[in-house]
Amino acid sequence: MTDVLDRTASPVRSAPGRRPFWTTRRRDQLTAYAFITPALLGALAFVFLPLVLVVWYSLHEWNVLADTFNFVGAENYRKLADDPNVPAVLRATAFFSIGLVVLNLALALLLAVLLNQKLRGTTFFRVLFFSPVVVSLLAWTIVWGFLLQDNGGLNGLLDAIGIDGPNWLRSGGTAMASVVIVQVFKNVGLNMVLFLAALQGVPQELYEAARTDGAGPWTIFRRITLPLISPTILLTSIITVVGSLQVFAQISVLTQGGPGTSTTVLVYYLYQQAFQFHAFGYGATLSVVLFLIVLALTVLQWQMRKRWVFHEH
Amino acid sequence: MRKTISIAATVALLGALTACGGGEAESSGPVTLRMTTWSANPDHVKLFDAIAADYKTTHPDVTVQFDALPFESYTTTVTTQIAGGNAPDIAWILEGAAPDFVASGALTPLDESIDDAADLAPTATALWKQDGKLMAYPFSTSPFGVFVNTDLVKKAGQKLPAGDEWTWDNAAKVAAATASKTGKQGLVVRDFDYKDWTNLATVFRGWGAEAWTADGKTCGFDQQPMIDAMTFLHKAIFTDKALPAPGVAADFFAGESAMTIAQISRASLLKEDGFGWALVPLPAGPSGGYSVIGQGGIGVLKKGKNASAAQEFVKFFTSPANSEKLAQFFPPPRKSQLNADTLAKANPLLKPEQLQDVVIDGIENGVVKPSHAGSAEINQAVRSGLDPLWKPDADVAGVLKGVCAAINPLLAK
Question: Which N-terminal stretch is annotated as signal sequence (chain B) (predicted)?
Fold first, then answer.
């Protein structure tokens, strides 16, 4: 320590002919590290450390009440393989994610294309579709919970036009679809804005040239628009896929995983195991699985970008 | 200058020494005890604070903080706090979580910390004992009764059946007729909402049905009494429309239903200038009369930082004098206080015969709602197993068989 202090205090006094330790380059580096240290410490404490700890916990049986924390090796992973609920949970997760990603991206793109026209009132509709994004997720979900009750607002509307609406959140067929649609409307505005920005970045000359060559609207969309906005499609699909795997509040508020286990997605199941059934070790195991799934999907999408994303050839 | 420094050093050294001494002997020095509850009701909080202030007059070093947590996630929150190394010193415990807390060794035995323990009713303490030791004190032993909106029933031209006529069949008839004539709901099993099925014990025990055998090892859902009870309930919901259908919200205390099954502590939700009401015991089922109680216990957590100070405060909090004060909200487990006089003073809303029929008889004969070790997981399995029942065309016996298939492995654990 003193050594370092001495050198900082008197770099000039080092032996003649030797380069001083504190070169401009080193000083710059030190300054840079000093600037990123707070963020780095934050990431270490709240991202990397928990990640490592979760893997460590997953190798233990941890009963909080009895205060036991025993190393059990791969036991939790064997339990995972034998758990009769896991196939249903993975099915529900896949159903939610695929439903959300497909509907969200398709609707966002459709809205973006429609609202990219030079017509009166498009600003109003852009604001309208974007506004749910800034609404609190919980408030949005709770209000939808009321609307979707058997005697709620939606069935009231349907009743007025002579349709006997289903019990949206309580029947196996409609519960998951309801959760997906509530979530699509919540976040479609964000993807819509990203798509709008991308659409406005497509050079007009290309459209003009295509029209001159006699291309119809569908061909123009497929051959020019889609390839040119493909980087944005990649970005939005990664964000949406990763986000869809983290769905929790919506399930917790609307269905609590029911009816049966039809809406018990992976995050909700791990919450149940860890925080309701007090099986923290097994909960950690499920977190590791979730982490691996998200990692695999992201890597896959990143690899596939070379095939279909413009600019990446 | 040098003198000032040496004085400062001496003072600092002395301070450090005294601080060390304080750390070793737990009782000396100011202590803040944290007690988690699931009630943020201002009247309850006022009473708790008054008891804590009272305690401070004899124990000036002890401050008690009441930490009201949301009821729905109460046990989850407390366990997470324990896992995070932030265990409360004293915690309320729900009857459903009692077997887990009592058996786990997370609690300090309270036998030494209860004044006049012989006064506690054995039916009240049964759930809270482990190897004969009292692990938590059942501060609230609250029977379920039926609240009736007499204005609504009268408006529908119905009469509330009394005496031997007060059976499940007749109760369902009145509820259905009132619902169809007033456009409101009939009978609401409060807090059931097609999720917390343990509240259905207030119905199925009228058929002598049980969720599992007393030893907790054999599932009772596929047994004939349960099939009969659930067939009755299914018909009452979907054919007679005596109970609100799944997903239909109705609050009795806001005047939205004719009757509700609830704990008597809910009487505090009745408004003075509201509708006319009555409180009656649970209707008799085919197997006769019965009563069901819900409980809350107070336990001292071993992992809390001030266990011995916490134990002393619990002794004060549960003393006969304070138990009498608490009785206005929480029916006490003390036999000497289970009489209409004491309870009438504390519950001015209830008439003496209501107190006798519902509260006193209820506590003496009552059976606590279903509970089991690992109850959260079992309850979740039963809930999802019962979901297919809540459809108009459900196969009752088949669904109940499925419930047993789902929970048998968990009961055997």
Answer: 1-21
Q: Report the number of distinct structural domains present in chain A.
A: 2
Could you tell me if residue A70 is inside a domain? no
CATH code of the region B9-142+294-366: 3.40.190.10
Residue with tokens 């007009």: A204
Hunting for tokens 């003393």 — which residue is that? B319
The CATH number of residue A177's host domain is 1.10.3720.10
Of A63, A67, A260, the CB nearest to B384: A260
Quickly count helices (H) and strands (E) in chain B. 16, 11
Domain extents for chain B?
Answer: 9-142+294-366, 194-232+374-413
Residues 6+ apart with CB under 8 A from A87: none
Residues B279 and B148: their CA atoms lie apart, in Å, by 6
Say yes or no: A63 contacts chain B, CB-CB below 8 A.
yes
One DSSP character per residue, A66-134 reads: TTEEEE-TTHHHHHHHH-TTHHHHHHHHHHHHHHHHHHHHHHHHHHHHHHTS--TTHHHHHHHHHHHHH
Instruction: Read off the tokens for A202.
Output: 């497509």
Answer yes or no: is A66 within a domain.
Answer: no
A8 and A120 in a single domain? The answer is: no
- Smallest CA–CA distance, residue A85 to chain B, in Å, is 10
Tell me if chain A has a CB within 8 Å of the CB of B286.
no
Quote the CA–CA distance of B332 and B340 in Å, as a whole number. Answer: 12
Q: Which domain holds residue A17?
A: 2-57
User: Which residues on B lie below 8 Å from A277 (Cβ)?
Assistant: 374, 376-377, 380
Q: Does A79 touch chain B (CB under 8 A)?
A: no
Q: Is A159 an interface residue toward B (CB < 8 Å)?
A: no
Q: Is the peptide bond before A259 cis (omega within 30 degrees of 0)?
A: yes
Beta-bridge partners for B296: B94, B140
Smallest CA–CA separation between A108 and chain B, in Å? 31
Closest CA to B327 of B119, B54, B142, B115: B142
A147 shares its domain with A203: yes
Same domain, A165 and A24: no
Q: What share of chain B is helix, strand, coil (3-state, %, to 5)?
A: 50, 20, 35
A313: in domain: no
CA of B74: which chain A residue's CA is closest?
A276
Same domain, A166 and A291: yes
pTM reported for the whole predicted model = 0.82
Written as tens digits, the pLDDT of chain B (413 aa) is 444 444 444 444 444 434 443 333 444 579 999 999 998 888 889 999 999 999 999 999 999 999 999 988 899 999 999 988 899 999 999 999 999 999 888 999 998 888 888 899 888 898 999 999 999 999 998 899 999 999 999 999 999 998 899 999 999 999 999 999 999 999 999 999 898 999 999 999 999 999 999 899 999 999 999 999 999 999 999 999 999 998 888 999 999 999 999 988 788 788 877 899 999 999 999 999 999 999 999 999 998 889 999 999 999 999 999 998 898 888 888 988 888 887 887 677 778 888 888 888 888 888 889 999 888 899 999 999 999 999 899 999 999 999 999 999 999 88
Binding-face residues of B in 309-338 toward A, CB within 8 A: none
In a domain? residue A20? yes
Judge: A167–B245 Cβ closer than 8 Å, yes or no: yes
